């Protein structure tokens, strides 16, 4: 049974509960759910569950502290606040809590200190905490443009790094990140696919998506070729697929002087093209050749082994030879026709 803030009628309390439960762990009992009005961090609900104290903004948890991890828990009736300090130094002052809710909140906090949560809930929370910690570490590294497990060719902006992060599945990282020194975008290659991303102020403008992002994913099994066309200085790396054929070369000069998205051959706007200088290309040639090799291996694996041609059945061959001999003996086939038919059959 859940206690609710005095500010809410039963109908509003039920709506609030339905939203908040989507942010909590499965099976996490809510003892109290109440009103607050916090700006830093932004929070509109305070919840005390069988496991922890939580400040939320609808479906997003802004602060949480498990009861054993709380070093200080202070309610202030005059200010209408609840101050929570964790042992690791994290803290929050939850403001504009109705005074009539404070005693109830204090009572449930004391109950949480005396109660041991179900082991299944603890296991779920520990798993989630480990996942969140790994995710936070990965996000921090990405925002700092640091990819320790990736080969990084060129300089990577924070915005481009965050765009790569959105393309990652789980904890994976690309093995190769190739950037265009001309600011034309980046290529990130994973174990089974590569992504061309065009984001950032200048890059998105040149890609015809000012202020936004243009990104495309190409699975290795769908790639039919990787082509590079260059002049004396500039060039274009092109990913070929059945939907992006190489029938017309997407060179650096064709369409680059037209308005954005006005020319179908403009490599700055095409999702499968990355303008790349000859210097960039030559500097990254070893990695590009490795990318081609990985694409080739992936296509061989997806195709599977080639089944050997079935050998003709000996019994069936003998029967057909007997029929041919019968046709010759009956005069239907001449000796020359019989010999030629026999040769074709044996072949």
Sheet/helix structural class: alpha+beta
**Residue share in helices?**
25-40%
Largest sheet: 5 strands, mixed
Residue-averaged pLDDT: 84
Order of strands, main sheet, comes to 1-2-3-4-5
Please state the overall shape, judged from the principal axes of the Cα atoms: elongated
Radius of gyration: 34 Å
- The separation of the N and C termini measures 84 Å
Report the β-strand fraction as a percent range: 25-35%
Per DSSP, the total helix count is 9
Low-confidence stretches are none
Encode the helix/strand succession as letters.
EHEEEEEEEHHEHEEEHEEEEHHHH
Number of strands: 16
Features of this protein?
347 residues, alpha+beta, five-stranded mixed beta sheet, 9 helices, elongated
């Amino acid at each position: 049974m859940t206690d609710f803030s005095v500010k809410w009628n039963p109908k509003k309390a039920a709506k609030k509960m339905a939203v908040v439960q989507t942010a909590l762990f499965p099976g996490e009992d809510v003892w109290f759910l109440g009103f607050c009005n916090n700006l830093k961090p932004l929070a509109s609900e305070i919840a005390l569950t069988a496991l922890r104290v939580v400040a939320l903004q609808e479906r997003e948890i802004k602060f949480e502290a498990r009861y054993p991890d709380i070093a200080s828990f202070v309610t202030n009736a005059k200010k209408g606040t609840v101050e929570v300090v964790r042992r690791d130094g994290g803290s929050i002052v939850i403001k504009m809590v109705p005074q009539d809710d404070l005693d109830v909140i204090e009572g449930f906090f004391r109950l949480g200190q005396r109660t041991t949560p179900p082991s299944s809930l603890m296991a779920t929370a520990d798993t989630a905490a480990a996942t969140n910690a790994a995710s936070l570490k990965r996000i921090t590294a990405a925002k700092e443009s640091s990819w320790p497990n990736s080969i990084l060719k060129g300089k990577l902006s924070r915005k481009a790094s965050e765009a790569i992060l959105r393309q990652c599945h789980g904890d994976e990282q690309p093995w190769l990140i190739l950037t265009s020194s001309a600011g034309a975008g980046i290529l990130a290659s994973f174990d089974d696919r590569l992504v061309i991303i065009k984001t950032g102020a200048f890059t998105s403008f040149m890609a015809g998506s000012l202020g936004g992002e243009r990104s495309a994913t190409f699975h290795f099994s769908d790639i039919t070729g990787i082509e590079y066309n260059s002049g004396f200085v500039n060039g274009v790396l092109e990913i070929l697929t059945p939907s992006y054929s190489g029938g017309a070369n997407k060179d650096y000069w064709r369409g680059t002087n037209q308005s954005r998205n006005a020319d179908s051959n403009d490599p700055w706007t095409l999702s499968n093209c990355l303008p790349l200088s000859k210097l960039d290309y030559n500097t990254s040639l070893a990695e590009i050749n490795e990318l081609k090799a990985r694409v080739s291996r992936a296509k061989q694996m997806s195709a599977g082994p080639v089944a050997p041609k079935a050998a003709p059945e000996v019994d069936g061959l003998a029967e057909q030879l007997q029929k041919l001999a019968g046709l010759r003996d009956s005069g239907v086939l001449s000796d020359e026709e019989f010999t030629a038919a026999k040769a074709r059959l044996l072949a």
